[in-house]
Structures are given as structure tokens and as C-alpha cells.
Specification:
Blueprint (H helix, E strand, L loop, with lengths): L1 E6 L3 H11 L5 E7 L2 H10 L5 E4 L8 H11 L4 E6 L4 H10 L3 E4 L4 H12 L4 E2 L1 H27 L4 H11 L4 H8 L3 H15 L4 H10 L5
Parallel strand pairs: 1-2, 1-3, 3-4, 4-5, 5-6
Length: 218
């Protein structure tokens, strides 16, 4: 049985997809929630989840940031973006952030079900109308991922430290970062200092420059 959670800030959308999914013998909807924050709260006490279907454009925490946090904290959970955006660049960003698939909300019911089953089997899935357009762009991003992995290994930077570095580069304070990724402020401060030590930079500005120069940030 494929255990699914729906994340979308539109109640009617969640209800519609729940009705579709619950007609399937091999799919169970464990929860439908209106925000990424509520999804993270649900996951703290429910670890049997297989797939998250999430919107990209939501208030507060957006879908891309949500995907990154899920992959950092729950790497075994699959994530399938389900959005109105038929955009190759957004689809590529979803995949490079760790998403397992991308579907548009105008996809047929059959394609949505097929995408869920493909992702559940460990495959990547892209909406049919975007698939061919994404091939070249996805290869380019995949090459960048290999470069990023090399740099992470070279400087012994963990995925959690990379996630914190990305938020630092966006201008968030230690306290704001702590709230966003559910860590204590002191823990975030410790990770920031470790990043400065590992990269042999002098301060936060130097750390951010290091990140861009070495393809860890884009």
C-alpha cells in the first residue's frame, strides 16, 4: 500500500485529489494538510509515509524550500510536486532540490496515478508535456549536482550544513534559520561556525562568497 500525504493550501484541491486517490486499492491517503509547516509537524509523529504530493506556491514556506527540508530530514520519503506551473525551470529546480517527480494540476487522473506509482517504485517522473523539454536542462543540472557533491566531499560539508548555508546566503539570521528548519538557535550558530572553519573563511560574507565561487550556491 502506498501511503500518501497531500500538501496544498487550497481545501478544494486537497479534497479533489483525496477523492481520486481513495478510489485506488493500492493507495491510502494518511493526511491532507494546508501548509508545509503542518506537514512537518505531522511527520514528527508519523513515519510510515511513502510519498508527499505538494504544491509549490504556498504561503509562508514555499514548496521548493519544503522539498529541501524533507530530503534533509526524511531522505526516504518521496516527493512529487503537483502544481499549476507548467514551467521547465521550476521542474528542474524541484528535481535538483531532491524532488522525485513533477506533475501539473491539469494532468489527467490516469497520469497522476501513474506518476505516483512510478515514484513509489523509486523512479523519477515528469509530466508528459514537460518531459522532452526537461531532458537537456535536467542533464545540465545533473552535471552541476556532481560538481556540488565533489565540493561537499572535499570540504566535508554535510547536507544539513549546506541547507544552512543556502539560508545564510538568502540573508536569514540564525534565529530565523532555526525557526525554518526546526533547530535551536545555538545549533544553527554552531553549524555556521563549523562552515567558516571548514572553508577557512573569515566571516559570513566570506562564507557566502565561497559558496557561490565553489558552485555550492546558485
Amino acid at each position: 500500500m502506498i501511503q500518501v500525504m497531500l500538501v496544498d493550501d487550497h481545501h478544494l484541491v486537497r479534497n479533489g485529489f483525496r477523492l481520486i486517490l481513495e478510489t485506488q486499492d493500492d493507495i491510502a491517503v494518511l493526511a491532507d494538510v494546508e501548509s508545509a509547516e503542518n506537514a512537518l509537524n505531522f511527520l514528527e509523529s508519523n513515519h510510515d509515509l511513502d510519498i508527499i504530493l505538494t504544491d509549490i506556491n504556498m504561503a509562508e514556506m514555499g514548496g521548493i524550500e519544503f522539498i529541501g527540508i524533507i530530503k534533509l530530514r526524511y531522505p526516504n520519503v518521496k516527493i512529487l510536486a503537483l502544481t499549476m506551473e507548467s514551467d521547465m525551470d521550476i521542474a528542474s529546480e524541484v528535481l535538483t532540490t531532491g524532488g522525485d517527480g513533477y506533475l501539473t494540476k491539469d494532468s489527467s487522473f490516469e497520469e497522476v496515478l501513474f506518476g505516483i506509482r512510478q515514484v513509489a517504485k523509486g523512479e523519477k517522473y515528469i509530466n508528459g508535456s514537460l518531459g522532452f523539454a526537461c531532458l537537456y536542462d535536467y542533464k545540465k543540472h545533473t552535471d552541476n549536482i556532481h560538481d556540488k557533491r565533489y565540493m561537499l566531499s572535499k570540504y566535508d560539508i554535510t547536507e544539513k550544513e549546506l541547507a544552512i548555508l543556502e539560508l545564510i546566503a538568502k540573508g536569514y539570521t540564525n534565529g530565523e534559520i532555526a525557526d525554518r528548519i526546526f533547530l535551536s538557535k545555538r545549533t544553527v550558530e554552531g553549524h555556521r561556525q563549523k562552515l567558516i572553519e571548514k572553508t577557512k573563511t573569515k566571516n559570513t560574507a566570506g562564507l557566502v562568497r565561497f559558496g557561490f565561487h565553489n558552485m555550492l550556491l546558485h
